Input
Amino acid sequence: MKSARNKLARRWHQLMGTLGIAVALRSKHAFEEAAWGVFEDLCRRYSEPHRAYHNLSHLEALFSLLDEYEIPERPAVALAVWFHDAVYDPTRTDNEERSALLAQTQLKGLELKASLRERVGELIRATQTHQPTDATAVWLLDADLAILGSEPQVYFAYARAIRLEYAWMPQERYREGRVRILTGFLERPQIYHTAPFRQRFEASARQNLTEEVLRLRKTGGERSQTLT
Output
């Protein structure tokens, strides 16, 4: 996690420079202090103890993946990546909205343009349904779902991490909810919206999701037989 934080610090430094906020680690300038204050707050949020998956490593994975592609509105997408899971409470259903509002508030404090703040909020809100909204949002959505098409061992480590984040939820309720979500993705004509992500991840994502759904249903069936 420390390695991810160091990499993210460099990314934040570069992004602030791209946005015109001169950031120097030893400077006491107000903008620089504000910018690094936001960074530290984000690191604190993504390091919360209940985050087994939605943590700093998740952020670095998204950035590393998006580095491979030419995407539109890169600064806005980068800010959306930073903030998209900044508020993450698995017991709530409004995390995306709260994350978007946090982003807009924090970015206003950095005196970034209102149009950019609104755009970042739009991109974050699109992650709630992972349905296409525009030609920029699709890149964020596809990157966020790339884990679904990862190598089987990586995927199932991810699945276990998600279960840990929902450790408060009874197993049967979790199983039903997880199956519903995964089946929803499988029922879509395509999971990924961009051609590069479809080519790279679509087939493996469908295989991973199908196997997890079958495993969850089998587990539920075995439990039902035991109880009868």
Residues 18 and 81 are 16 Å apart (CA to CA). The first helix runs from residue 2 to 18.
